[in-house]
């Protein structure tokens, strides 16, 4: 068997390996172009590609769903997902966290202990059910807001982030920020969103290469430290207020109430809430924006969805639309595992400590595994459709896999289904820009450019995305039917214990 050094990969230079970064023809070497560069590597080198980063563990890109399955199946009881080292390091030293890193960055027994403490409450259907109406009401407020308030020159991306923030804060902190209210435009929501952006950006800069900030804290490191501390303090203050409500017995069946009744303390709730906000804002907002783009460029599919939403109580097409969106544009472009065991993968024998970058977005568009991969065909996910496909189970995994998979999956599905059903029933969604949509990545992927300005024409609300436009043309409005549809779907699911789509 061959070893790591025999794997094909981009040219690696003595001492510095690939430290100068990677590049591909036509897209250059900017880290924001990573998905395009990796696609090129897959075409050039095949299903397994070596990346050489001196000072880091050996890294292998995996582009084959069957090989990805082998990696996941060897992850053990404490799966390790490397990344966000600087975030974990700083959080573990904060007074407000009591040395607790939380879910996103911790590993081993510490991760398991924290996940065990919180997972029952986060995943419990009864807890989720408590938020159905709130999630839907926030969605309706968002739709009213963009219809009434978006003006020329305003950034609509920001509005989607505000919606996702409003929702996750309502769930995790029992607090309404009222992000869409004009008087709240410069308040805590803007501060939280800008802190999150700064934190993601800081982590991205500090987590590549040799992590010397542990010994020589740089200016960027100090700034990240201040941002994380402030973010945690804001969350902590909200938790503190919410716990007062709990003491007055007002939080029954809520997430915090459930955590409280299971003996979780204020620190655990603060750490969990920051995790849920970190995990739950950008990805959910991007999933909705990508769905709108795909519905905009596929009016025939939009029509089917609209008909389903307005005439039937059957949500299958909605689920398939979201699934197909996540295949084409999974908000997390890759998943990562570090294995503690040796692994024989294809014709290679790899050492313990190897880091595997599981490139699901690229596999999910490979014609070897899926028919017409670049086409938006929700029907391929529908059992009753003649276009239904049997796909490799480890091909498209937008929420990850196994015990370490996304803890917010059920909440995010609730939010995304609600928002798409509201927008697709209420507006005709159009797209006036370049297709296919260009994406770039900064830990998560997002549309390139900004949804930066809007204009109203007659009954059309037009949201401009740099040179691209998603426009919403008002179609119909039946708040009660939609709410019934939404609640019925979830009640069915909860009663039948059905699996996610
Ligand atoms: C479209 C929306 C979302 C996508 C695509 C997504 C995707 C992911 C992925 C791929 C992972 C890594 C899983 C693995 O390692 O196998 C993850 C982890 C995580 N997600 Fe999500 N997520 C989404 C929404 C959310 C929401 C709404 C929340 C919070 C309510 C959340 C909280 C988390 C947390 C805390 C983790 C770390 C779990 C752990 O390591 O134990 N995510 N997510």
UniProtKB/TrEMBL annotation:
Keywords, sorted A to Z: Heme, Iron, Metal-binding, Monooxygenase, Oxidoreductase
Residue ranges of the TM segments: none
Binding, heme: 406
SUPFAM superfamilies in the cross-refs: Cytochrome P450
Keyword Methyltransferase assigned: no
GO molecular function: heme binding; iron ion binding; monooxygenase activity; oxidoreductase activity, acting on paired donors, with incorporation or reduction of molecular oxygen
Cofactor: heme
Keyword Membrane (UniProt): no
Pfam family name, one: p450
Family: Belongs to the cytochrome P450 family.
Protein name per its UniProtKB record: CYP3020A1
Species of provenance: Eurytemora affinis (Copepod)
């Amino acid at each position: 068997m061959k070893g790591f050094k025999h794997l094909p990969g981009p040219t690696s230079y003595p001492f510095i390996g690939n430290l100068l970064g990677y590049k591909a023809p036509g897209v250059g070497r900017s880290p924001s172009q990573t998905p395009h560069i990796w696609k090129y590597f897959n075409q050039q080198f095949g299903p397994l590609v070596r990346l050489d980063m001196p000072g880091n563990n050996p890294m292998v890109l995996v582009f084959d769903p069957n090989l990805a399955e082998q990696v996941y199946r060897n992850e053990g009881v404490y799966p390790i997902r490397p990344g966000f080292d600087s975030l974990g390091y700083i959080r573990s030293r904060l007074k407000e966290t009591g040395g607790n890193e939380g879910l996103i960055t911790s590993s081993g027994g510490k991760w398991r202990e924290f996940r065990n403490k919180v997972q029952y409450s986060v995943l419990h259907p009864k807890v989720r059910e408590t938020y159905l109406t709130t999630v839907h009401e926030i969605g309706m407020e968002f739709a009213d807001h963009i219809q009434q308030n978006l003006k020329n020159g305003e950034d609509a991306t920001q509005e989607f982030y505000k919606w996702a923030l409003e929702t996750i804060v309502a769930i995790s902190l029992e607090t309404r920020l009222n992000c869409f209210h004009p008087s709240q435009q410069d308040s805590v929501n803007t501060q939280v969103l800008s802190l999150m952006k700064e934190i993601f950006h800081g982590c991205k800069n500090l987590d590549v290469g040799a992590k010397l900030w542990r010994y020589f804290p740089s200016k960027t490191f100090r700034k990240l430290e201040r941002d994380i501390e402030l973010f945690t303090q804001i969350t902590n203050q909200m938790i503190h207020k919410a716990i007062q409500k709990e003491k007055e017995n007002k939080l029954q069946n809520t997430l915090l109430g459930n955590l409280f009744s299971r003996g979780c303390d204020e620190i655990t709730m603060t750490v969990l809430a920051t995790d849920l906000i970190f995990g739950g804002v950008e990805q959910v907002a991007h999933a909705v924006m990508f769905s709108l783009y795909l519905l905009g460029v596929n009016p025939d599919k939009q029509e089917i969805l609209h008909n389903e939403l307005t005439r039937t109580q059957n949500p299958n097409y909605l689920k398939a639309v979201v699934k197909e969106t996540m295949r084409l544009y999974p908000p997390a472009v890759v998943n990562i595992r570090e294995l503690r065991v040796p692994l024989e993968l294809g014709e290679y024998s790899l050492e313990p400590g190897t880091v595997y970058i599981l490139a699901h977005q690229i596999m999910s568009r490979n014609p070897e595994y899926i028919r017409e991969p670049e086409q938006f065909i929700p029907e391929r996910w529908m059992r009753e459709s003649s276009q239904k496909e049997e796909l490799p189970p480890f091909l498209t995994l937008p929420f990850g896999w196994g015990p370490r998979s996304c803890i917010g999956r059920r909440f995010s599905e609730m939010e995304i289904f609600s928002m798409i059903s509201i927008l697709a029933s209420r507006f005709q969604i159009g797209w006036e820009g370049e297709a296919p949509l260009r994406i770039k990545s900064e830990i998560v992927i997002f549309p390139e450019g900004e949804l930066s300005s809007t204009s109203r024409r007659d009954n059309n609300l037009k949201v401009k995305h740099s040179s691209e436009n998603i426009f919403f043309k008002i179609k119909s409005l039946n708040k009660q039917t939609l709410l019934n549809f939404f609640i019925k779907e979830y009640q069915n699911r909860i009663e039948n214990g059905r699996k996610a789509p």
